[in-house]
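TL;DR need structure tokens for one chain.
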Amino acid sequence: MTEIPTSPLLNETVEEVAEEYNEVATDAERFAFLPRGIEYQKERIDNLDEFLDWVEEKFEVAQQNPLKGVGKTGNPGRPANQILMFICMARALRNELQMWVQLKNEEWESAWGSLIDAQEWASSAKSADPISQFCGMEGYKEKLISHERFLFPPHQYVSPGMVVGSYICSICGEEYDSCPHLEGIAYNGVFCNRVIRDIEFTEVSFVDEPHDKKARVRGHYTDDGFRNQMTWEIEDGEDGRDEELVGETPDYIDDDDVEDFLQIEATVMTADDVEE
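>> reply
TL;DR here they are.
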């Protein structure tokens, strides 16, 4: 990982965070490979957790001093955004290491989730502040995509169709269409999100480019039971149909024709997609 130069950093608090991050991240990256010992990978996860605990106070200091170091033409709140970038990158590295640990423990579903979390944290780091370019951001994101392509089987993704009554801004709590904030932009260390209100689900579609890569087909039912899409192993049941999971045949389908349909189980929406 490229060491962050001091010139783009806005004040001494951000510089202190950058120095600490460079040390812990450089050490963590040395162990983000399959052959590295699992005990060393767990130790680096602990080190990243310690960094994340330590940086909270620095983050609060930056939020309380949004103008410190920004200059007359700078953006208020940018020091906190810069620290947010380091937090996001530390979380991305932590999830990547966690993925390797879970793969070694044959926790395949959890490993997939950790990889997707790593990708999302890396994307958030890029959105937080332009200094992410000094972290080798593009190369790191490509590395995570390579993990997706070569470590896991192809997935079939799904996406829910819905009618949304309104969106609320997570920053100010106002209607998103009438507030001054933009989704995905960080304001004094906090990302703006659109919080969905009054949802009516209408359908589920198969997609090639999902918004959420955790929303995918988990498996399908066979004569022998439920076949996991990740491992291709039969997990449970002898008759190939779990009524509690699959439910009753829809009214518009003739019961005599049910065998002609492939019954699948899928995650349509995850908790990350919903803001309370």
